[in-house]
Amino acid sequence: MLDILNHLVYGFQIALLPINILYAFIGCLVGTIIGILPGIGPAGGMALLIPLTYGKEPASAIILLAGIYYGAMYGGSTTSILLNVPGEAASVVTTLDGYQMAKKGQAGPALFIAAIGSFIAGTIGIVLLMLIGPPLGRFALRFGPAESFALMIFGLSMVSSLAGRSLRKGLVSTTFGLMLATVGSDLPTGILRFTFGIPKFMEGFDIVVVAIGLFAVSEILTCTSEMQTGEFIREKVTGIWLSMKDFIYSLGAIFRGTFLGFFIGILPGAAHVTASFLSYTLEKRFSKNPERFGHGEIRGVAAPEAANNAAACGALIPLLTMGLPASAVTAVMYGALLMVGVRPSPFLFQKHPDVVWGLIASLYFGNVMLLILNLPLIPLWVKILSTPSRWLFPIVLVLSFVGVYSVNRSPLDLLTATTLGLLGYAMVKLDYPLAPVILGLVLGDLMEQALRQTLMISGGSLRIFLRSPIALTLFGLAAATIILPKILYRGTDKLDVET
Amino acid sequence: MGAERSGALIILLLGIGYLWEAFAMQVVSIGDPLGPKAFPIFLGALMSLLGISLLIKPEKGANARLFGKTSLGAIILAGILAVYGFGIEWIGYPIATVIFLLVATRILGERSWIIGMLLSMGLSIGVFALFTLVLDIRLPLGPIGEILK
Q1: In this structure, are B106 and B143 located in the same domain?
Q2: Mean of all residue pLDDT scores within chain A
Q3: In the beta sheet, which residues pair with residue A184?
Q4: Of A283, A285, A274, A343, which is closest to residue A314 (Cα–Cα)?
Q5: Which residue would you say has higher pLDDT here, A358 or B38?
Q6: With 90 as the cut, is the pLDDT of residue A175 above it?
Q7: Beta bridge partners of A193
Q8: CA distances (Å), A51 to each of A7, A41, A65, A155, in order?
Q9: Looking at the domain assignment, is residue B116 inside a domain?
Q10: What's the total number of domains in chain B?
Q11: In the beta sheet, which residues pair with residue A185?
C-alpha cells in the first residue's frame, strides 16, 4: 500500500512538471474538439495526432495521448445530448435519454450529469486500476474466446429485450446490426460476403457512418417531417444547473455504472461499447420506473457515461500489466509507446515506472482538468439549442457529413449515411429500436470470430462451452433476460414487454 | 395491409434474401469447423422467423403512419442530402456546402435569401477552417482549388 503511494507521488512529480501540465491541457482540449466533431472517435483522433508526440519524452507523449483519449470521450457525449449526433459507438447509449432530456429543455442537467458521472467514474476507475490492476489482468487472461462469445451473447440479449417495447422488434434490430457486420471480406478465409460486387463493401460498414446515419440523419429527417405537419416541439430551456436532488438520485447509477464498466473494460473486444450498453439496460431493468427510460431519465445518462469512462480505465489494465492491447484505443497507445521507445510488456511497471505512474497520475489530473474545462462551457452549449431549427438542422447535417467523409474520404459513405437515415426514420415510425443495430454491428465480427476460434480449439465440439463455468453463467443470464420478463410480468405492462 | 405488416414483410424478405446469399457462398475452409457460412445462415434464419412471427401476429398498440404526406419532407431532404454527398467530390466542398445550406435552410423555413447566403458562406468557411487548420483533414476543393493553384 505504502509502495503504491510512493509510486503515485513519484507519478505526480512527473505529471505536474509544467511541460507535462501543458501537454495534458493540450491533449484534453484537442480531445474535446475531436469528440464534439462527429466522425473521428477517440482511437482515430489519437492516431491522427501521434505525429504531435514525435521527439517528446515518453512520459510526456503518453500524457498527451491520454488527454486526447479522455477529452474525446467527454466531447462525444456533448453532441449526443444536444443534437443526437453520437461521435462514436459508445455515445449512442447517451443519446437515448440525453437527447430526450435536451428536447424537454433539460440539456444543462444532462450535460452536467454526464460530466460529473464521467469524472467520478474516471477517478474511481484510476484508483481501482492502481490497487487491483495486476491481479485482475491475470483474471482477464482466463477470458478466452468461449467466454468472450458468451459475454457478447449476454450483452446482445440484454439490449434486445430492453431497448424497445417489444422483444421481437428488439431482436430484429440486433439481427440487422449483426447482418451489417457480416458484409465485407471474412477475416480468417478472405472470402467476400454480401458485397454484391461493390468494391466499397469489401471493407464492411464503418460504425461511425452507420451511427451518424441511423441517429443524426434520421433524427433530423424525423424533425423535418414533424415541422411540416406542425408536430415538432422543442421545449424551452428550463434550467442550466443540475439540482442537488437529481445529483443524489443519479449517484447510485453512477457507482453501478462505474464498477460494471471497469470490470467489463478489462475484457478484450469492444469493451467500452458493451459496458455502456449493459449498464444502461441493467439500470432500466432494475429501475422502479423502467417506462421513464428513453423519455429523458437522468439515470439513463449517468450510468452509461460512468460505465464508458470506467471501462476506459479498465482497458488500460491488459496494456499496462501484460503488454496486450485489448481495444482499438489501447492498440493506438501501444503503437505510440513503441514509437517513443517503450516496449509494452509484462515488465512495464518495473522497466518504465516513469511512464506507467506518470500516466496514472496524469489520468487523475486530466480528469480534474476536463471537469474544469467543461463545466463552464455547459451554458454555452445549451445556448446552441436556442438557434432556430431552420438553421440548426442544416448545420448539424453539414458537420455530420464532413465527419463521415473524413473517415474514408468516400462519397459512397455519405450515400450510405443518407440511406440509413431514411431507414432509421422508418424504423422509428414503426417502433423498432435503433440502438441494438449499433451494438450488433460493433459486436458482430468479434462474436463470429470468437465462436469460430472456440470451435477451432475444440475441433468442432460444442462441449467446450460446458467446461467453462464463466461461459455457462453468462449463457444462463442471457437466457434469463429473454425469458424472465415474460414470466415475471405476464399480463402486466410493467416493462412494456408484450407477451 | 398496414404499415406494421408491411414492415414485417420487408423483414421476412430481407431474411430470405440474406439466407439465399449465405447458402450461395462458395466456401473451402480447412481447420475451421464452423466456416464463414454458418453464422450468416443462422442470422438469415432468425430474421426470417422474426419476419414470419411479426407478419402473423403484429405487435399491439403500434399506429404507424409511414407513408403519405408526413414522410414527404423527410424524403425530399434525404434526396438533397444524397446529391450534396456526391457534390462534395464533384464541385468541391465549399461550393457544394454553400448550395446545400441555401437550399436546406430555405426548405426548413428561412425566408430571407440574404440571411441564408450569409449563414451558408460563413458556416462553410468556418467548418472548412476547423477541419483543415486545426485537425489537418483535407476536404476536396473542386474548381476553387484549380483557381488557387
Answers
A1: yes
A2: 84
A3: A193
A4: A274
A5: B38
A6: yes
A7: A184
A8: 29, 17, 11, 37
A9: yes
A10: 2
A11: A192
- The three cell numbers of residue A369 are 482538468
Q: Is the pLDDT of residue A125 over 60?
A: yes
Given the C-alpha cell 500524457, which residue does it identify? A63
Picking from A171, A398, A459, the nearest residue to B101 by CB comes out as A398
Same domain membership, residue B125 and residue B82: yes
Contacts of A135 (CB under 8 A, 6+ apart): none
Q: Quick one: pLDDT band at residue B67, thresholds 50, 70, 90?
A: low
Clarify whether residues B142 and B93 are in a common domain: yes
- Chain B residues in contact with A431 by the CB 8 A cut-off are 59, 62, 64
pLDDT in tens, B70-103: 778 888 899 999 999 989 888 988 899 999 999 9
| Any A CB within 8 A of B71 CB | yes
Residue of chain B nearest A390, judged by CA positions: B108
Q: Are residues B29 and A189, on separate chains, in Cβ contact within 8 Å? A: yes
In a domain, B114, yes or no: yes
B24 and B84 in one domain? no
Q: Which of A161, A193, A227 to mutate to test the interface with B (most CBs of B within 10 A)?
A: A193
**pLDDT score, position A498:** 35
Q: N- to C-terminal Cα distance for chain A? A: 53
Question: How high is the ipTM of this complex?
Answer: 0.90
Radius of gyration of chain B (CA): 24
* A35-48 pLDDT tens trace: 887 767 777 777 77
Indicate whether B47 and B94 sit together in one domain.
Answer: no
Angstrom distance (rounded) from CA A395 to CA B120: 9
For chain B, the farthest-separated pair of C-alpha atoms sits apart, in whole angstroms, at 67
Question: Which of A224, A393, A415 comes nearest B85 by C-beta?
Answer: A415
B79 and B26 in a common domain: no
Q: Rg of chain A's alpha carbons, rounded to an integer?
A: 22
- pLDDT at residue A497, rounded to an integer: 39
At A155, list the grid cell: 450483452
Lookup result for grid cell 428488439: A170
Alpha-carbon dihedral sign for residues B103, A34, A343, A267? negative
Structural domain boundaries enclosing B15: 3-56
pLDDT per position as a tens digit, A317-358: 888 877 777 777 777 778 777 877 777 777 777 778 777 887
